[in-house]
Amino acid sequence: MESRMTSNKSETWSSKMPEGLDLEISQHPLKMKSVVNLIIALERLGSSSTEPLSTEFRDENLINMMLENIELWELTLRRLPTVTDLYKCVPLPSSERTEHPFSVTDSEKRNLVVVPNSMELHAVMLQGGAECRKVYLDMSTYVNLEPNTDSETVTLGIRGTNFYLSCYKDGDKPTLHLETVEDKDSLSNITSDSNLVRFLFHKHITGRNVSTLVSVPFSSWYISTAPENNRPVAMCLSSAQRHKTFTIQPLKRKPRCEGQI
């Protein structure tokens, strides 16, 4: 049987169809799933070479085809790994881990310093001649498994030392720490089920050389500085009245007094 269809331009074309079936074009937009199901149905109709099509296409035939397609979609979805599965299965860092030095200042143009005889970072407005107190961060970039193109996953090490920033719960809330890492190679293969995740931060780019630094295990907590000068760098929620953006620029020259903390 020849079925005919006319487009809105009054152009006519014909195609062979099984007897008793008409093909009709709808002006309503179809979702991709509907298009795929339509293609599958047509392929099955056209590939029934071993058994001739019946001249009568009953409701039961359509229901059977729909049920088969639903089963096909369910099987396909079951085979697709979730983002969580990928995060658990794939190591976070890239195969070649390299550290790059950066200078860091908060939104008040204050530098970060390590307080002597303590494991604390402070944000300080340094005066002339105090450059040796300034902290530079070594950043290693890791494979970012989140579908977010404006962020990188990094570790934050104090240049010239074995100190690394980490975030974990000390009491009832996440807190920022400086930890000594004797074996830096141990940070080369961090997976989501490792306690080394505390060393990972998301660097979210918010402007030219401007970023926020968010804990990976505690995704609502930001590295921040206090409104007052010479106060500890700490973790905070986005609603806190603290400075959460930092100017992070690649270091163009080797700093003087490197490692003197």
From TrEMBL:
Compartments (UniProt record): Cytoplasm, Cytosol; Lysosome; Secreted, Extracellular exosome
GO biological process, one term: macrophage chemotaxis
Keyword annotations of the record: Cytokine, Cytoplasm, Inflammatory response, Lysosome, Mitogen, Pyrogen, Secreted
UniProt KW Oxidoreductase keyword: no
Family annotation (Gene3D superfamilies): 2.80.10.50
InterPro entries named among the record's database cross-references: IL-1_fam, IL1/FGF
SUPFAM superfamilies: Cytokine
MF annotations from Gene Ontology: cytokine activity; interleukin-1 receptor binding
Keyword Cytoplasm: yes
One GO CC term, this protein: lysosome
One Pfam family matching this protein: IL1
Family: Belongs to the IL-1 family.
Record's protein name: Interleukin-1
Naturally occurring in which organism (per UniProt): Mola mola
